[in-house]
Amino acid sequence: MEAVQTLPLPADWRDFFALTKPRVMTLVIFTGLCGLLAAPVHVDAVLGFTAILCIAIGAGGAGALNQWLEADIDAGMRRTKGRPLPAGKMAPATARDFGIGLSVASVLIMGLAIGLLAAGILALSIVYYAVIYTIWLKPRTPQNIVIGGAAGAFPPLIGWVAATGDISLMPVLLFTIIFMWTPPHFWALALFVQSDYAKVGIPMLPVVAGEAATRRQILAYAIVLLPISVLPWWIGGAGAVYGACAALFSGIFLALSARVGLRQRTGPDDTMKPEKQLFAWSVIYLFALFGALVVDRWITLLG
User: Fold this and answer.
1) Domain end: 166, 196, 220, which one?
2) Tens digits of per-residue pLDDT, 118-139?
3) Angle in degrees, CA 161, 96, 121, rounded to 5
């Protein structure tokens, strides 16, 4: 009997949209917009919209390339097996070409409409995520999230550069905040889905070093994140409203991280509620922190 070859099902717009990782893209767009709006310059509305559109398209392209490269890994994980490629909804080459097209278009438009520096950083962020993180770091080292966290930290830097045309200490601090936030955010998730990562051979920290070491690392990063998050106020790049919000939000982040970092599970039946609470707050935290930065900027302008 001849083997039956399964052909990809016809993909529709929802499958292409899923390739862009819309949940991740939402955070990328928001932090990029906040970086642009927090810059101490007037930004033309059309150019500002173009810059954020390019950030969104670039993030979508990087997400599509990531899913193309990780289709076999996604197929083995409960959390990702329903994505378009492991579900057989499109050919791998289609996802690859879609990702390349979005990535190239975003960089070209950014370069032509905004500037070469912003376009160069956008190109670096795409390559960093799709190549350095996905191909090199993620399958090889438990520090994948630490080093790879730079990929998700670029958007506010790109937004700031698109507005001002240069790099200063303030956008570097915004980059650093996300860079330090990324490990506890992802390790909290990795703690309650570590069986999936172990199944597909991804050396996430809980799989390689164990839960106890991961919990200590989460707490350590949260401790460092608190003073770093307040630094934009300390250097005069943001006002008291941001400073107070940063201290409060980071204090909550630290308290939840301490619950995770200092606890010892009694067995496999012990719930992961503190870890899930930390992961949920970590998402809210970044939206709230960068939102406070923009509100602070508006208060300064109105004052």
Assistant:
1) 166
2) 999 999 999 999 999 999 888 8
3) 10
For residue 221, give the nearest of 195, 188, 264 by alpha carbon: 188
Closest CA to 32 of 242, 168, 175, 146: 175
Q: What are the backbone angles phi and psi of residue 10, rounded to the nearest 5°?
A: -60, 125
CA 285, 190, 149, 181 torsion: positive or negative?
Answer: positive
Domain hosting residue 88, numbered range:
10-166
* Boundary (domain end) residue, out of 143, 166, 189: 166
Read off the tokens for 197. 């990562």
Q: Assign 3-class secondary structure to 127-145.
A: HHHHHHHHHHHCCCCCCHH
176 and 155 part of one domain: no
Residue 195: how many CB atoms within 10 A of its CB? 12
Residue 1, domain member (yes or no): no
User: Which amino acid does the sequence have at 254?
Assistant: L
What are 193's two structure tokens?
């889905």
pLDDT in tens, 218-263: 999 999 999 999 999 999 999 999 999 999 999 999 999 999 999 8
* Judgement on whether residues 188 and 285 belong to the same structural domain of the protein: yes
Q: Is residue 183 part of a domain?
A: yes
Query: Structure tokens of 164?
Result: 């001002």
Residues 157 and 206 in one domain: no
The number of beta carbons lying within 10 Å of the beta carbon of residue 78 is 10
7 DSSP assignment: P
Q: How far apart are CA 128 and CA 130, in angstroms?
A: 6
Specify if 114 maps to a domain: yes
Residues 161 and 172 in one domain: no
In a domain, 227, yes or no: yes
